[in-house]
Design a protein that fits this description.
By secondary structure, this protein is of the alpha+beta class. 27% of the residues lie in helices and 27% in strands. The protein has seven helices and 19 strands. It has a five-stranded antiparallel β-sheet with strand order 6-7-13-11-12.
Length: 305
């Protein structure tokens, strides 16, 4: 039985004539990198842009909340699940290289874009290597590492607003900032392009290896995780991970949810952690850092429920 929407809404969603899939009560632990969380009331897999447009218009008309999901690498779904529709963007896999530009669908993995760029001696995205996310998600959260954000290379992005209208965002229209973009809740990116530079193939591959090795040392791949829990605090010459180390949080755990022993700003699922276990660990981290350092960290992981 569907949990959060009425039978009438379920029947309405089933009548939408799309080429993709519309499913119900789909466990989201199978679609997130933390491997935790309850079911989505509705789980839609649009096959193309037209499918997505029909889906978004129907969801808006029915007043159903929705959230576009790529790799599920920066989210924590509550144990009760998501009351609304998850839009699976995995079918948006187009990619093309035009001179210094790489244009790609929102659902394509960052790693594939990095490989395409490296194979052509193009530089500007290799610092993102090892991030288990998609292109669309990276643009929305302005993903970055080692002092560089994806917005530095972004040229344009095509997106739907909540009414299903198509727009193009051009570079420079609105500002990006640290882990923040101009895109609002309800807007869904379908495709974007980055403008890269010409570089040394050997140096590009070396930077890719260094980025991946650094993430491995930080424990990104030892257990399921959602990446960095908190944003680095602005105005301080100390990272969120260093703050967690400073107050002795490494290894702190509640059941199978644990602060990584390799990096203080990562919470890992060591077995069968519930979302409640994970959120409680995050809450303890936030409170202890605030009490002992006076720094109020902002969470980077998005809670869905």
């Amino acid at each position: 039985m569907i949990l959060g929407v009425s039978i009438n809404v379920r029947e309405t969603m089933q009548k939408i004539n799309i080429k993709g899939k519309i499913l119900f009560d789909v466990p989201l632990k199978d679609h997130t990198t933390l491997k935790a969380g309850g079911p989505a009331d509705i789980y839609a897999v649009p096959e193309d842009v037209y499918d997505l447009m029909l889906m978004m218009k129907a969801l808006t008309e029915c007043s159903i909340s929705y959230y576009p999901l790529g790799a599920g690498s920066n989210v924590l779904v509550t144990d009760s699940g998501f009351r609304g529709c998850i839009i699976d963007m995995s079918r948006f896999q187009n990619i093309s290289v035009r001179g210094l530009y790489i244009c790609a669908g929102a659902g394509i993995r960052l790693e594939r874009i990095i490989r395409e760029a490296a194979s052509r001696g193009l530089t500007g995205v290799e610092h993102l290597s090892g991030i288990p996310g998609t292109f669309g998600g990276a643009v929305v959260c302005n993903a970055g590492s080692f002092g560089q954000d994806i917005s530095a290379s972004l040229e344009w992005a095509d997106y739907f607003d909540s009414a299903g209208n198509l727009h193009r965002f051009h570079r420079g229209e609105s500002p990006f900032s640290y882990r923040h973009s101009p895109f609002h809740s309800g807007e869904v990116i379908i495709e974007a392009a980055v403008r890269l530079g010409i570089g040394s193939s050997a140096e590009i591959h070396s930077r890719i290896s260094r980025a991946r090795n650094e993430r491995e040392k930080r424990g990104h791949y030892s257990h399921p995780s959602a990446g960095s829990v908190f944003k680095n605090p602005p105005g301080f010459e100390i990272s969120a991970g260093q703050l967690a180390d400073q107050v002795g949080l490494k290894g702190f755990r509640i059941n199978d949810a644990m602060v990584s022993e390799k990096h203080g700003n990562i919470v890992v699922n060591t077995g069968h952690a519930s979302s409640s276990d994970i959120s409680r660990v995050i809450s303890v981290m936030h409170q202890r850092i605030l009490e002992e350092t006076g720094i109020d960290l902002e969470r980077e992981i998005i809670y869905l429920g």
